[in-house]
Phorbol-ester/DAG-type domain-containing protein
Amino acid sequence: MCKEEIYWFHLCYYSCKDCNYSLHKFCAQLPKTIQDHPLHPGHDLTLSQEDQLYDPDFIFKETVDSEWICDVCFISRRNFYNYHCHICKFSIDIICATLSEQKMDHPSHPHQLQRYFNRMITSCYACGDEHSGTFFHCTICSWFRIHLDCCLLPVKLLIQKFTNWSFSHSHMLTLSYSFPFIELKAKFIPRCRVCNEGFACRRWLYRCDRCRYYAHVNCATLRKDAFMSYLTYADLGKTYKNFKDDDHPNLIRCPFPVESFNLLMHHFINKGKLPIKRKIYGDMSSHKHPLVLFDSQESLLKKSVSLHDPVKRVQLLCDGCVRPITDIPFYKCSQHSCDFVLHEWCTRLPYKIQDHHDHPEHTLILLPMAPTNFLGVFRCEICGLRCNGFAYGCWQCEYYVDVNCGFLPDAITHAAHPNHLLQRFKPSARELRKGCKACFCATERIGYYCPSCDFFLHNYCALLLPGTIRHKYDKHPLSLRYQPAENHASEYFCEICEDEVDPIYNWFYHCSSCASSMHTACAPLKLQCEQSTYSLSDHPIFEYYNVKFGRRYKIQNHQHDVAFVQGINDDGQCAVCRTQLQNRMILKCFECKYAVHHECHYRKQELDSST
């Protein structure tokens, strides 16, 4: 009769068992005559299917093809039942006539909701968007009104196909009628997994608490122009591959599979194999002693040399790229008392780099030690990390980069943003607000960017976080996670520093078998001094990823040798500036407990030399 859908909130209706004919309960029970209707008091309204009813003793006709306009909602009707006053020629369709009967008890609100008389354009309390059409409102709470489509949102939603070609989820999502701020804060202020925008506390959303998966209702239900009407894709979206493999034969696909694989290794493997020398002297290695090749287990056993193994507390770091040496071949100083070692590929580093993308005006020269600071420690101009390994530098401009950043590729792909090419990119001041998708920190340094999706990664987040790691705290490999882990019911805490892990805004390492997690900064293959890394630094990468600690030096004004180490809590205060030494680069005497910041000793040395 009213030609409207029968929804769940109508509770009961009439239906014919023999044919597909159904009636709302209030339509089936419509009286033939209504007396003193609030929209037309004083005259009787008679049920009709015509606009002009001249005979008060009207008998229903099966079909009357007439068009008329409702005097309440002003909608043109055809073959539509109405209530008509033959005195005033007043006609009202049965929808407007029965609005007082069209009510619902919705679980989102404690009071009964009633349908508005007219179709309207206004904002919906549920989703916050402005819509045109049918609304229900609370007669007690004047501010509460929701669009019909939001009234009909399913309580459970299973995303089996990609929404907007950008996301899917394997678990059933549950409709939630609010996101209280206390809960938002406890969940690290999550963002919608589809549009990456935040949530308003009082708006409805779909959620999977097992995975901390949250989406706006309009994002999760693919709604476009006509609310929940057209399920069409505007474009090919984020899952569409936007490059051809043949155009990028040496494309780096990040993250690297394991920690022992790195950028230089990839670069020189693609260059092809070169003859390996059994022994290297002077000029090629920039080391005062000859270097001996270790290329077999026998050679390791013969010289009692162990490969890098953090589980066994064995450290073997390359003096060129400052990366762990976990496999043969490599070179080591022939002098037993000298711990200078190099990856085989680090002996093949070119002496010059011309037209470097970040410093094209001058040629960069390979330097075994940057002449910028005490002990050759410098801050890389590209990644911003401190380094005491080999460098490529320009003396004229005092520009120095570590050897890994000397070979940054023009483009990469990353599993966190599959199928789209990420181009090397340096943000402008205006673009710093975007932030890295791995750590949500802004930077002015070079990174990798997908312009079509506004997806940005720091170069170190893209290139220095391997896909899987092994750690002594877990017998299984830990995988790099870009989002909260599925079926993880509890909160996330780092197994190393014991601080809470934010799975929404920061990548982390996770073992699904043991439900254990680690901050990316707490879990490098390199040995760390104590379990306090992340709590003292919000950097997503271990702060001293490019620094080799452990060597001993003779310094002025102290009778003993000192070791170059990372400070711990027990080291106390600096002998010069009297501030804490923990988590800083320090020079430490193990005989008399003398300890000083690396920077303080350097400044003191400069001051003494000038007086």
